Amino acid sequence: MPVDREPVEAEPDRPLWYLEEMVAATGGELRGTGIPHITGVSIDSRSIAPGEAFVAIAGERFDGHDFAAKACEAGAALAIVARERVGSLPPQGRYLVVEDPLEALRDLGRAARARSRARIVAVTGSVGKTSTKDMLKLALDASGRTHAPVASFNNHWGVPLTLARMPADTEFGVFEIGMNHPGEITPLVQMVRPHVAVITTVEKVHLEFFGSVERIAQAKGEIFLGLEPGGLALLNRDNDQFDLLTYLAKAAGVRRIATFGRLGPAHVQAERISAQTGCTSISGHVFDQQITYKVGAPGTHLVTNSLAVLGAVAELGGDLARAGMALAAFRAPKGRGQQALLRLPSGRATLIDESYNANPASMRAALHLLKETPIERNGRRIAVIGDMLELGEAELRLHAALSAAVAESGADLVYCAGPRMHALWDVLPKHQRGAYSEEAAGLKPLIVEDIRPGDVIMIKGSLGTRMGPLVEALKREFPVEDDGAE
Question: Best exposed site among 46, 168, 427, 451 by fewest CB in 10 Å?
Answer without folding.
Answer: 46
